[in-house]
Amino acid sequence: MGACCGSGKGAAAKRSDDLQPFLKGDSIQNAALLHDERSTMCNFILMCVCFGINHGTVTALVGLSSSVYECDPNLARAQNGVMWTVYAVVALLFSAATTKTLGPKYTLALGLVLNLAYVTSFLIAKLALAPPAACSVPEPQITTNLRWGTILLASVMSGVGAGLLWTAQGAYFQLTAKIYTQQSGTPLESATSMLATIFSGIYLGSELALKLCTSLLPLKDNETMTFAVLSTIATVAAFSMFLVQNISMATEVGFVASFLSSAQDTWSMLRGNPDIWRLAPFNIAFGLAIAYLNYDINKGLISDAPPGRGLGIQSVGYAQTILVAAAICSSSCFGFLNHTLGKLLPMMTAGLCWCVWALIILILGFKELQFWSWVIPLYIIFGFGRGVYESTNKALFVDLFGSQTPVAFGLLSLQVGLGAGTGFAMGTFARNSDALGICTVALGALGIIGIWHTTSKSTSSGE
């Protein structure tokens, strides 16, 4: 990693000239910090830490929402459904244009700041708009309306932030991979696999720590403390993103021009690149599985478990920690094995995970599964598939779409967001978790077929 550190001022100057299309900063010092692969890697890690911690607070609370709003169960579904739907729309229509206009760094920072709305809304609702202690006690309609309005407004803001985040992260990831390749001589595909492994490890590790935090803090007895701690952590991480180096595209244009250009690029990809369609079922299945997990499974298997089984709301964080730990293990293992095995095996295995996981729940039902002996393997299976999604799947997008990675990541976000938004809507209006499980199995199976065609084509063409 540090091979170029002592190569002399002439080589450093040459590298600086080579990297100018990818660099943008307020001073020469900004560019100088990326003169060698060590600095590039440290900068990338800082971005990952800020991103992972802020996003981890959101995912920790998504998993708890169905249990926190126990007296108003539809609020949790609506909260998450609105956030995921807005996320999908913004990711498709506005994320690429915003990334081109502001640059990846400032788009990432904006997204993380908007994410604070979702995290702090739990604290605001608890302090000012808390429902009665007993669900049977009526409350003024104005209080209910204010709580719903506050929560849904926060969901819209967070959906906008999340929709911007992943496209900007994809652009920052792509530019970092190109810079690192030029600096270190590492092949681009190897660099993307390595950076994907690092990102997913930090991202998932942050999420693991924060979900564990929700079980270690006195959630059942003092929700206010838990929400205050998570809000503070999210805020520090969001504003720390401004410390990251401003790597950006060479050209900067206005938002309208970027929007029209992005719309044209998106349409061209949808019309002319079948790979984005082949990968869609896999990503939609993941979105459906997210909705199935974060409402029906977390609540039905854990929060609503009978006394005496060691489960309950305080155990939701522990179960999700097991899931994330499994995701970290699978992400790390396949990240290193991708060089020899390729991306086909892990991707197909992840699709199989969605199918097996949902089938077990559909066949046995919640009552038979409300034991740690079932909860642990179920969350490990989900985590195994998620680890592949976070690392190998995103590296595959970079490999397949190259310079069109920001557009492709926008469509990736759309696919996952539509899956999750549809899943939460099915729970709210259809109120039938079995239908959601069946859709997860069906899309997971279609995803395996799509992955086979995509990676087989990629392998045969020598990519």
Give the structure's gist in a few sentences.
The protein is mainly α and 463 residues long.
Key phrases:
463 residues, mainly alpha, Growth Hormone, Chain: A, disordered N terminus
Distance between the termini: 25 Å
Q: What do we call the CATH topology?
A: Growth Hormone, Chain: A
Number of helices: 18
Helix content: over 70%
String of helices and strands = HHHHHHHHHHHHHHHHHH
Q: What is the level-2 CATH architecture name?
A: Up-down Bundle
CATH class: Mainly Alpha
Bin the strand percentage: under 5%
Category by helix and strand content: mainly alpha
Largest sheet: number of strands, sense, barrel closure: none
Low-confidence blocks of residues: 1-33, 459-463
Work out the radius of gyration. Answer: 22 Å
Q: What is the number of E strands?
A: 0
What would you give as the CATH superfamily? MFS general substrate transporter like domains
Topology, please?
Layout: H1 9-19, H2 28-32, H3 37-68, H4 73-93, H5 95-102, H6 104-128, H7 141-184, H8 188-216, H9 223-240, H10 255-272, H11 274-278, H12 280-303, H13 316-341, H14 344-364, H15 366-369, H16 372-401, H17 405-430, H18 433-460
Helix pairs in contact: 3-4, 3-6, 3-7, 3-8, 3-9, 3-12, 4-7, 4-17, 5-6, 5-7, 5-10, 6-7, 6-9, 7-8, 7-17, 8-13, 8-16, 12-17, 12-18, 13-16, 14-16, 14-18
Provide a descriptive summary of the structure in words.
With 463 residues, the chain is mainly alpha-helical. The protein has a single domain, classed as MFS general substrate transporter like domains (Growth Hormone, Chain: A, Up-down Bundle). It is built from 18 helices and no strands. It has helices at residues 9-19, 28-32, 37-68, 73-93, 95-102, 104-128, 141-184, 188-216, 223-240, 255-272, 274-278, 280-303, 316-341, 344-364, 366-369, 372-401, 405-430, 433-460.
